[in-house]
Amino acid sequence: MTHLAAVTLDESTLPAPSPELDQERRIAIFDLVEANTFAPKADPSGGPYNLSLTLRHRRVVFALTTASGKAVEFDLPLAPLTQAIRDYHAICASYFAAVSKAPVAEIEALDRGRRDIHTEGARLLKEALNPHAEVDAETARRLFTLISVLETSL
User: Fold this and answer.
1) What is this structure's pTM?
2) What burial letters (b/e) apply to 34-53, b meaning 16+ CB within 10 Å?
3) For the segment 88-106, what is each residue's pLDDT rounded down to a tens digit?
4) Angle at 27 between CA 96 and CA 126, to 5 degrees
5) What is residue 41's DSSP assignment?
6) If you ran DSSP here, which 8-state letter would residue 136 be given?
7) Which of 38, 69, 122, 130 is the most exposed place for a label (fewest CB within 10 A)?
8) E strands present in the chain
9) Alpha helix segments (H runs only) across 10-103
10) What is the pLDDT of residues 39-60, one digit of tens each?
């Protein structure tokens, strides 16, 4: 199965991120480039691919290019991910606020909740991606993180 060699976000659609969101974005991109499984069904050439993610009209656009210049693009509606993104934003805000002042047990509970919501969002994303691309669970998790960073208005 093929993979992503590089990942970028359309910065023109992003507000200035908080330090925590910026860190989440950087870690997700690093982790994706280090290890991922991403095989677009419209291009059996095998890649590897450079991925650019952007939001356009309440849809996430996946723009892929190969080293030879071949381009593949598809988009997904945000609607199936909206609740998971909202919940993820809310629990991340609670977690980041708690890290410096809450008891360890509360931080751990928030972190478990954050991971659970993240896992559910990744599952929904993997399901939505299925007609377009095959991805593994960890790739879906990192992509969900990036889509959550892109969609900060929910």
Assistant:
1) 0.91
2) eebbbbbeebeeebbbbbbb
3) 999 988 988 888 888 889 8
4) 95
5) T
6) -
7) 69
8) 4-9, 38-40, 49-56, 59-66, 71-77, 133-135
9) 19-34, 82-99
10) 998 877 777 999 999 998 899 9
